[in-house]
Design a protein that fits this description.
By secondary structure, the chain is of the alpha+beta class. It is about 25% helix and about 20% strand. It is built from 4 helices and 5 strands. A 3-stranded antiparallel β-sheet has the order 1-2-3, with no helix packed on it. β1 (about 5-10) and β2 form a beta hairpin. The longest helix has 11 residues, at about 60-70. The protein is elongated. The protein starts with 5 loop residues before the first strand and ends in a 16-residue tail after the last helix. The model is unreliable at about 5-20 (pLDDT under 50). One of its GO terms (molecular function) is nucleic acid binding.
């Protein structure tokens, strides 16, 4: 499998973005694999602030805050699935619950997808968090 395209360089580090398109759809899912440095490429900045794009994930409030604080990027449409999935269907209320010991929300994107899509064997591949 080839590496995602490099969309910028900062301080010698590459910024890569992977894009996926749903079958029969014009919708794309982009995932920034990593970014290092104080400035983001203009193309990534424009993508993140576009009102028609949805910035989504599980427990994304820190990501949204960091983009604002570090890069002066205001996400126009953040959607935290840990909040909206339980609101959409009461049967998923348990996904919102706090961790019994630490008191923070505990549902990962993997856990939410597994529950909503009824995929009991869904697991994130080893090393999926980082691109070497």
């Amino acid at each position: 499998m080839s590496s995602p395209p490099i969309i910028g360089r900062r301080r010698g580090r590459r910024i890569r973005m992977r894009s996926r398109q749903s079958h029969g759809s014009n919708r794309h899912c982009n995932r920034v694999l990593y970014a290092d440095g104080r400035d983001l490429p203009i193309v990534l900045n424009r993508f993140l602030i576009e009102e028609d794009h949805i910035f989504t994930g599980a427990h994304i409030e820190n990501d949204v805050k960091r983009l604002q604080d570090d890069f002066d990027i205001t996400i126009s449409n953040p959607t935290d699935l840990q909040l909206v999935v339980p609101e959409a269907a009461p049967r998923y209320e348990y996904l919102r619950g706090p961790h019994p010991l630490y008191g923070v929300r505990r549902s990962s994107l993997e856990k939410i997808a597994r529950a909503v899509l009824c995929l009991p064997r869904l697991h994130k591949p080893e090393g999926a968090d980082h691109d070497n």
